[in-house]
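Design job #97: recover the sequence.
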């Protein structure tokens, strides 16, 4: 009997050792091997959720009453009206080899009074974050409410074959291709690795608000039909994060005065220093926090700037949610020097996530503050984020500055082949019990270029999109950098008292307009990137001043069906910055030449047309030119005074040919982009005119 027990113990030890070795090879040292469904009750706490309906309330629980196999199902109860999903595991580190597996299977049961917006879709993400998406084509949920529906999703080679079939199907003209003859439309990101699946997501889209979805029998299946062994990492680990850094001494952004409508700096403001001097001694306070659920061990810290080590330190053992600060000195150099701070540089500590062990930014990055209600931090701390951690600080930088920096580089144009030069970083984080109208006035925020307040009431949005792109939040933060709402150029036909035509920007970027060109969404539009690069190297505080940068000479080339509109009558109307209409007399009038060219005359920017008496006084420097501290010059130009919000930045051009009127719109973004291309002295704009 004793020999049997000893033998059994040896076998258990061998199995445990093999399992540990397998796990270690995959970068995991603490966790458990399982075989069976992901929908069993012991795994319910490891499911996450998301929704594009930013204010939706979502709840994921285990349901032992409604199930079709095993002990329970996973129940999603949501108020969402749009794309909503569950994912597993919430650490996104399963690292399962699905390259030779047969299928990913699951069953769904729903209660939904609003109807479904199509079949569910599944997204697999590999350990590098790349994705493979499978969209169902049968819409079986719509006809099977309150019934269990089985799904089987292809993997590996079968999925790759279906992706090729999907590509062929989508190349067929939409009017001719009909319904697909494959069960899944598959899109696989280049470089996606089937051997290292980190997580899966099951999505559904409803026709109205609110539904309940049960998920059961969720599992990967081997070629022989048997369930697959999989690894679930432990959450009882530390998690060191280099969360943010504050620069000292503080220097203010610009404080701009608009009392005369145009932007100006007071004499006192003009004397202020906004950057450190070259060679000045400065320092950073780098925040390191244990955002995990177990105490961390003592480890190292290294910080480099421009590739040179400027600080080495020891991070003490930290309890969960405990923080320490490392002081990093540096002699200031103006420019975009890479700042890199890292903890546990050998990677030896077993943590929930390794992605947050490093903080990087460029030294001249704009700084953003964050004022967070305590209730918000508590809720966001409970949700896994882009970094794979459970930390509102990691969520904050992942959802905001990291995303913005990625889009700055991603949004490339002929005049900006490397994208926008600027960078942003989190420069201050304050946690308060409650946000009030005067909360911001209690802190020294003038040293930051912008920022945002994060109330508890917005927590559902932050949690729902903790692993997704937060368009609205990044849009608002970009305003903090002085970039306008590009949709200010949009124009409703009801406000056009000349011919009733309207204007829109269908290929606009994340600021609501402009043109994204060949960039994939989300992206900053051409005018946004032009603006960022024009004012690069200057602190923020100004807003929309880049619109002043219009070429000296601007010539329209009018065409119909590609042919010049030669010697025709031309009228140019402008959208009003005061009431948003086009009416009255044209701002420009004349005739084209034999090549269809029409030069727009430059109009004085001052006095400001439409301003009330006493509403604006001329600048002390004179009215010929007004140059901002950021290097943008307002001078005589075709628009007259250029509103920094963009409200009067739209022309409608009309031309009469053969007793028939033609028209087209052109917004000031085209002029600014030509300036960015280096066409400062003279620029041409071709308009393909449409008949009225």
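Job complete. Output follows.
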């Amino acid at each position: 009997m004793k020999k049997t027990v000893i033998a059994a113990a040896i076998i258990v030890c061998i199995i445990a050792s093999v399992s540990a070795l397998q796990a270690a090879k995959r970068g995991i040292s603490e966790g458990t091997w399982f075989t069976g469904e992901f929908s069993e009750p012991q795994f319910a706490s490891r499911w996450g959720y998301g929704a594009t309906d930013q204010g939706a309330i979502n709840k994921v629980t285990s349901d032992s009453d409604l199930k079709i196999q095993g002990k329970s199902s996973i129940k999603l109860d949501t108020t969402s009206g749009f794309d909503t999903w569950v994912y597993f595991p919430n650490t996104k580190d399963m690292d399962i080899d699905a390259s030779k597996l047969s299928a990913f299977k699951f069953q769904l049961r729903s209660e939904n009074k609003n109807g479904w917006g199509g079949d569910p879709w599944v997204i697999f993400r590999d350990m590098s974050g790349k994705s493979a998406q499978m969209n169902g084509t049968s819409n079986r949920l719509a006809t099977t409410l309150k019934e269990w529906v089985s799904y089987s999703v292809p993997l590996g080679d079968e999925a790759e074959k279906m992706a090729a079939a999907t590509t062929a199907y989508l190349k067929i003209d939409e009017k001719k291709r009909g319904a697909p003859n494959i069960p899944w439309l598959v899109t696989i990101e280049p470089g996606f690795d089937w051997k290292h699946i980190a997580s899966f997501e099951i999505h559904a889209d409803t026709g109205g608000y609110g539904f309940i979805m049960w998920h059961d029998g969720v599992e990967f299946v081997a070629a022989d039909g048997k369930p697959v062994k999989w690894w679930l990492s432990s959450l009882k680990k530390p998690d060191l994060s280099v969360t943010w850094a504050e620069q000292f001494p503080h220097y203010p952004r610009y404080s701009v005065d608009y009392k005369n409508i145009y932007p100006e700096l007071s004499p006192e403001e003009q004397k202020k220093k906004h950057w450190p001097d070259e060679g000045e001694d400065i320092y950073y306070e780098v925040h390191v926090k244990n955002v995990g659920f177990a105490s961390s061990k003592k480890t190292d810290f290294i910080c480099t700037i421009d590739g040179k080590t400027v600080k080495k330190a020891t991070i003490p053992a930290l309890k969960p949610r405990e923080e320490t600060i490392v002081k990093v000195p540096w002699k200031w150099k103006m420019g975009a020097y890479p700042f890199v701070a890292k903890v546990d540089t050998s990677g030896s500590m077993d943590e929930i996530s390794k992605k947050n062990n490093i903080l990087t930014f460029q030294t001249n990055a704009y700084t953003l503050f964050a004022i967070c209600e305590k209730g918000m931090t508590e809720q966001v701390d409970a949700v896994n984020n882009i970094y794979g951690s459970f930390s509102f600080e990691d969520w904050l930088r992942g959802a905001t500055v990291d995303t913005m920096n990625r889009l700055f580089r991603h949004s490339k144009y002929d005049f900006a082949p490397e994208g926008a030069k600027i960078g942003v970083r989190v420069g201050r984080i304050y946690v308060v019990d409650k946000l009030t109208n005067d909360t911001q006035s209690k802190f020294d925020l003038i040293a930051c270029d912008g920022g945002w307040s994060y109330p508890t009431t917005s927590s559902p949005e932050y949690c729902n999109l903790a692993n997704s792109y937060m368009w609205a939040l990044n849009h608002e933060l970009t305003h903090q950098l002085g970039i306008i709402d590009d949709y200010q150029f949009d124009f409703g036909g009801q406000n056009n008292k000349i011919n009733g035509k309207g204007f829109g920007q269908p290929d606009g970027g994340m600021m609501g307009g402009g043109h994204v060109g060949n960039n994939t969404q989300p992206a900053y539009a051409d005018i946004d990137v032009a603006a960022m690069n024009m004012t690069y190297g200057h602190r923020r505080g100004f807003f929309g001043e880049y619109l002043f940068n219009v070429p000296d000479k601007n010539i329209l080339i009018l065409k119909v069906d590609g042919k010049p509109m030669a010697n025709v009558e031309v009228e140019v109307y402008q959208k009003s910055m005061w009431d948003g209409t086009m009416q009255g007399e044209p701002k420009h009038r004349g005739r084209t030449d034999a090549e269809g060219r029409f030069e727009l005359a430059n109009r004085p920017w001052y006095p400001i047309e439409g301003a009330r008496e006493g509403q604006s006084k001329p600048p002390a420097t004179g009215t010929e030119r007004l140059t901002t501290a950021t290097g943008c010059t307002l001078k005589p130009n075709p628009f007259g005074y250029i509103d920094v919000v963009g409200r009067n930045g739209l022309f409608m051009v009309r031309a009469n040919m053969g007793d028939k009127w033609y028209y087209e719109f052109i917004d000031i973004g085209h002029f600014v982009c030509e300036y960015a291309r280096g066409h400062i002295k003279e620029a041409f704009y071709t308009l393909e005119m449409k008949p009225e």
